[in-house]
Amino acid sequence: MSAAHSGHAIAAAGEKDLPELLALMRAYCDFYETRPADERLLRLSRALIGDPELEGVQLIAREPTGAAVGFATVFWSWDTTEGERIGVMNDLYIAPAARGTGLAERLIEACLERCRARGATRLDWQTAPENARAQSVYDRIGAVREPWLAYSLAPGGRGGAS
After folding, report:
1. What pLDDT does 2 receive?
2. In the chain, what are the domain boundaries?
3. Cα dist from 158 to 6, 92, 151, 152, 161, whole Å
């Protein structure tokens, strides 16, 4: 399944997309000032490619020229308070040259389409408090800010990278 709008095509990432997807994931990690090894990022992508029903999906957005300019990652989870499956959009990244084109909104809609197809009742995500540009997109599309606080704890007892 793919979606096209204003020249951009959006489709599930596959093995052939990994070199360009890795470059986008690296730029996303740079934005958040993290440095996971390429092998770890590729392991994540291959887990999603290998089992999209259980793990989730990565979507890649391409310009008409074929250049990869954005991606989104949706992981499948559950909400115990509702007894329903949900999608968690862990990543959304648009290359600087493609920002302001409406591609972020189209990637979010493609994530929602995947949620509907998977039987998920909603799509959740987080962003950094200082990421005002992303927040303006989320506000514009009608997303609701939740009052929850995010916490992280690694198995060794120290906070995670979030």
Report:
1. 41
2. 2-140
3. 45, 26, 11, 8, 10
Q: How many CB atoms lie within 10 A of CB 96?
A: 9
- The sign of the torsion formed by the CA atoms of 15, 20, 21, 26 equals positive
Fold of 2-140: Aminopeptidase (3.40.630)
Question: Which SS3 state, helix, strand or coil, does residue 28 take?
Answer: helix
pTM over 0.85: yes
pLDDT of residue 158: 65
Torsion of CA 19, 160, 34, 49, to 10 degrees: 10
Compute the distance between CA of residue 107 and CA of residue 38 in angstroms, rounded to an integer.
Answer: 24
- CA dist., res. 63 & res. 51, Å (int): 27
Bridge-based pairing state of the strands 2-5 and 123-124: unpaired
Q: Output the pLDDT for position 160.
A: 61
pLDDT value, residue 7:
83
Alpha carbons 34 and 46: distance in angstroms, whole number: 20
Q: What is the pLDDT of residue 161?
A: 58
Which residues in the chain land under pLDDT 50?
A: 1-5
Three-state SS sequence of 124-162: ECCCCCCCHHHHHHHHHCCCCCCCCCCCCCCCCCCCCCC
